[in-house]
Amino acid sequence: MGNKVDTMAAHIETAKKTRVLNCSGRKLKEIPSAVMSLAPTVRTMDLSKNQLTAIPVALGNFTELKQLNAEHNEIGNLPNELTGMKKLENLQLGYNRIQEIPSSYSKFKNLKSIYIQNNKLTIFPICLCELRHLDVIDLSENKIQELPENSEKLQCIELNMNMNQLKGIPASLSLCPRLKVLRAEENLLELASITSEFLKNSQVCVLAVDGNLFQMKDLSDKDGYDKYMERYTASKKKFF
After folding, report:
1. In this structure, are residues 203 and 230 in contact, taking their beta carbons and an 8 Å threshold?
2. Count of C-beta atoms within a 10 Å radius of residue 143
3. What is the pLDDT of residues 119-168, one digit of tens each?
4. DSSP label at 63?
5. Fold of the domain spanning 1-120
6. Range(s) for CATH 3.80.10.10 in the chain?
């Protein structure tokens, strides 16, 4: 036990100098109180691969934090107080037991990427539609059945909905101004849910929909597919 405490003390001392706290894979069931002394300093915190069942509200005092990784724990609920992390840009919460994202998380105005894959979400977090700088949303491996009707408010470039229970794609998604990549593999989508309007008018240049209730060859016969392929080909030329 003494060695574990000594090691944690060493991590804290290092974090004071580097502004990075790495507590990954330490079998922690709770965050040591001594960590809270780093609130004015730390910019990156890694709590992944532990046994945490909750995130303490005191983490909201980490006003300089830009990256928080709490993946691979046993977290069930998220506190509203985390929104005190005003500078947060990257939030990783994958592989936990989270059932809901608080509506207050619309206050994460600097958030650029959020990963909540492999949790217990059944409803798309509407608060994500309010985040203007959010580039990447990963909600894969949950049990979400539908996207919000006001999807046009989403500002993300990539939306990963793989391995959910989606039955349709709302028309409003074609109006997303920045959406380039839509991943919706292994859902419950029928061919009719991917409309010609979406294929023609959306900004999506990578549409991943394998493993749904239709054959991929049938998608290529839809009106508007040629427009989608033009965007796809152009994106390949741009980045490769």
Report:
1. no
2. 13
3. 999 999 999 999 999 999 999 999 999 999 999 999 999 999 999 999 99
4. T
5. 3.80.10
6. 1-120
